[in-house]
Amino acid sequence: MNPVELPLPSPPTDASEQDLASALGVVLQRDGQLLTAGEVLVLERARALSPTGRAVLARLLQRRVRSIRIADLDYPAVPDAGTAARELVAAGLADDETGLPLRLVLEAYPNAALAEILARHGRTATGARSTLQAGLTAIPDLALR
Hints:
By secondary structure, the chain is mainly α. 52% of the residues lie in helices and 0% in strands. Helix 1 (15-31) runs antiparallel to helix 2, helix 1 crosses helix 3 and helix 6 packs parallel to helix 7. The radius of gyration is 20 Å and the shape is elongated.
């Protein structure tokens, strides 16, 4: 009896990752000569990411906000979003600076978290998002990551 060989499962992926991988290949092949050396470097780094790294990058590129808490990343195609995000940072495609301006840091927090922070500082923790953000910016020396 011959042993049966089972193929290894494909790495987790989703349509966003596949679309990004295809687009990177097309742009580099078709338009590479029109790009600056820096643009080519960024595209090549993105193309060299693992499928999970590309999946996180594709999802992050679709977001309107620029600051995102790693703990909040949850994509079905990415079993460990934290590791994938660190891969983006290592490739120079994301920034893990903790010294961001407060307005950018606040973008990364949901309203419930903003209200919780206000409550811990003894401030009013209700209202629209703009009210919550204004309350937080009024706290002297507020340190958020």
